[in-house]
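ok so i was messing around last nite and threw this chain in just to see what happens. nothing serious, just curious
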Amino acid sequence: MVGLDICGVDIVCNSVHAPLEEQEGGIVEVNAAPGLRMHLSPSYGKGRAVGDAIISTMFADGDDARIPLVAVAGTNGKTTTVRLITHLLAQKGLRVGMTNTDGVYIDNQRTDTGDCSGPRSARNVLFHPDVDAAVLETARGGVLREGLGFDRCNVAVVTNIGMGDHLGLSYISTVEDLAVVKRVIVENVAPTGYAVLNAADAMVSSMAPSCPGAVIFFALDPTHPIMATHRAQGHRVVFRDGDDIVAAQGDQEIRLALKDIPLTRNGGIGFQVENTMASVGAAWALSLDWDIVRAGLRTFISDVGTAPGRFNLFDYRGATVIADYGHNPDAINALVKAVESIPAKRRSVVISGAGDRRDIDIRQQTEILGDAFDEVVLYQDQCQRGRADGEVLALLRQGLTNARRTTVTKEVFGEFLAIDTALASLKDGDLCLILIDQIEEALAHIGKRVAEG
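result:
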């Protein structure tokens, strides 16, 4: 009647052996947090093991009272992978708690905003009474400051290390240093759990011996020596074979058609194929039914609602506009490969740089873009992160010095003005990649401009 699984009912009566009506008894209160001491150690009479009885109604025999927990680390692709794994688990009917750089989500409802990829946010999810499973983005900063928000996980996913990111901060100066930090989640996999590792990234694949559980490797190329050896030994691998993603163990194969995975745009976006493979590996490690996995992959759309700032596409006056939060050389390389698969008469890009990156990291981004885009719009955003006024723009400009394709360069102060500048020059059949900084605000601004036509 009151919606409580367990409660204390306080009764005034002469005897519990007779109905209350016959003895003018009554109920004093229904207590949502009853004390157990008087039952366990009564003033007289025999104690009752009410604690055992309560626990037995909450958990099955042999249950360790833990929920499935997935931790995701890497340089790029973490947030998309976290969101996709969360979506797959939700298809099973689980109420999933998720943390990422956009916020904290409980059963698809955002309960906190901002960068929530640290241990405090993880603990908020794990303390929540409604959560049936947790998927936690685990960033380097939080690990260095406070460690993990959990003692062990069922699945640890490491998407990539590549050239790294945030190098030079907190005494993490090399990709080897960074790999040691990212490896922490692998070292804390439960003995019955799995690490899902990128076999094509040497820094990631070398984490395998540190895993107390088993390993699932993923890579685009099934003939990669690590992939081939792992499969030959009877272990699990996930790879791409033509128009399919394949989950294989020994001679057994499960095929997932890329045409049924909108996130990958029929397999044309390579980095989204890798994110999908990592997510499939995590779902496999958690023993999700393959029909549930297929349904989840089919219904996950990478739009502003499901994956804001992750390759969101818009149609603006016949031109293709792509908004993405890519902010390091590896991400830029992946984005360039992805947009090359989309036909366009003329290509433009809007970019700024995070001031807390090394000079070389900021320059490298425009060095890559200068060979792939006809027009580059550079902008200085609100947060220079310790840099002097104009310093980031100067570094971005330096990166374009030897550009092989870029013929037009514009410099703008302010992200929204930069977006408007790029959109104003678009014609039918053009393509514009906008590397956004203020994710929600920038996406809202682009959406408004698209709606205006």
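not much to say yet. The two ends are 55 Å apart (CA to CA).
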